[in-house]
Design brief:
21% helix, 8 strands, alpha+beta, Thiol Ester Dehydrase, Chain A
């Protein structure tokens, strides 16, 4: 009998190559998520906290902060790096459109850079992450550079 290790371990550097793609599970954003996030972060802008008289606002729906969308995307990606992720080093982030209460999101990833560290004991992996809503529209894009364990 061979021990296959712990379920839920993320990708090691050696598991990924430029051009590889994967996607996360989906997650619907609900009103309670918005309320909890706004209260936790103090992002109390009326765009996020006012439910009535939205006619004069640029976005009529119950829009959520892009910071919430980014945070949920990173949570959806956790299985990718569980026990193998060592550091989040940098990222550029672009908001492509609004995300509202009731939207269901997932993250689509493509490996765009993979290289060993100078000592060869770890690896650096950059992915292009697209947060996509249920209608296929990208709402957020970012390209994190992460340090991962090697096997």
């Amino acid at each position: 009998m061979t021990d296959k290790g712990t379920l839920g371990t993320g990708f090691h550097f050696d598991d990924l190559a430029v051009g590889d793609t994967f996607r996360t599970m989906q997650r619907t954003i609900v009103e309670a998520d918005l309320a909890a996030f706004v209260n936790l972060t103090w992002l109390t802008e009326e765009l996020f906290t006012r439910a009535t008289n939205r006619e004069e606002m640029a976005i009529k729906g119950r829009v959520v902060p892009a910071a919430l969308v980014y945070s949920f995307a990173e949570g959806l990606l956790l299985p990718m790096m569980q026990h193998t992720g060592l550091a989040f080093l940098e990222a550029e982030l672009q908001v492509r459109g609004p995300t509202c209460v009731g939207d269901t999101i997932r993250v689509e990833c493509e490996v765009i850079e993979a290289r060993a560290t100078s000592d060869g004991r770890r690896g650096l992996v950059r992915t292009r992450n697209r947060v996509v809503k249920q209608d296929g529209e990208a709402t957020l894009e970012y390209n994190p550079l992460r340090m991962l364990r090697r096997r």
